[in-house]
Amino acid sequence: MFRKILIANRGEVAVRIIRSCQELGIRTVAVYSDADANALHTMLADESVPVGPAPPSQSYLCGDCILEQALRLGCDALHPGYGFLSENADFAQSVIDAGLTWIGPDPAAMRTMGSKTSARAAMLAAGVPVVPGYQASQDDADLLGAAAELGFPLLVKATAGGGGKGMRIVHRDADLPAALASARREARSAFADDRIYLEKLIASPRHIEFQVFGDRHGNAVHLFERECSIQRRHQKIIEETPSPLLGADLRRRMGEAAVAAVRAVGYVNAGTLEFLVDPASGDFHFLEMNTRLQVEHPITEQVTGVDLVKLQIRVAAGQPLPFRQEDMGQRRHAIECRIYAEDPANDFLPSIGKVLRAVEPVGPGVRVDAGITTGDEITIHYDPMIAKLIALGENREDAVRKMDWALQHYVILGVTTNIPFLRAVITSDAFRQGDVTTDFVDRHFADWQPSTKAPPDMALVAAALAELLEGEAQGAGAGPTGEPQGDDPLSPWRQATGFRLGER
Amino acid sequence: MFRKILIANRGEVAVRIIRSCQELGIRTVAVYSDADANALHTMLADESVPVGPAPPSQSYLCGDCILEQALRLGCDALHPGYGFLSENADFAQSVIDAGLTWIGPDPAAMRTMGSKTSARAAMLAAGVPVVPGYQASQDDADLLGAAAELGFPLLVKATAGGGGKGMRIVHRDADLPAALASARREARSAFADDRIYLEKLIASPRHIEFQVFGDRHGNAVHLFERECSIQRRHQKIIEETPSPLLGADLRRRMGEAAVAAVRAVGYVNAGTLEFLVDPASGDFHFLEMNTRLQVEHPITEQVTGVDLVKLQIRVAAGQPLPFRQEDMGQRRHAIECRIYAEDPANDFLPSIGKVLRAVEPVGPGVRVDAGITTGDEITIHYDPMIAKLIALGENREDAVRKMDWALQHYVILGVTTNIPFLRAVITSDAFRQGDVTTDFVDRHFADWQPSTKAPPDMALVAAALAELLEGEAQGAGAGPTGEPQGDDPLSPWRQATGFRLGER
Amino acid sequence: MKSEYTYQVGDEIRTVRVQRNGDGFVVTVGDSIYEVRAQRPEHGRLNLQVGDQRLRAYVASEGQRRYVAMAGKTWELERPKPEQKRRANAAGGPGAGSLESSMPGLVLDVLVSAGDAVERGETLVLLEAMKMELRITAPAGGTVTGVRCKAGDVVDRGQVLVEIASDDG
Amino acid sequence: MKSEYTYQVGDEIRTVRVQRNGDGFVVTVGDSIYEVRAQRPEHGRLNLQVGDQRLRAYVASEGQRRYVAMAGKTWELERPKPEQKRRANAAGGPGAGSLESSMPGLVLDVLVSAGDAVERGETLVLLEAMKMELRITAPAGGTVTGVRCKAGDVVDRGQVLVEIASDDG
Question: What pLDDT score does C149 carry?
Answer without folding.
Answer: 87
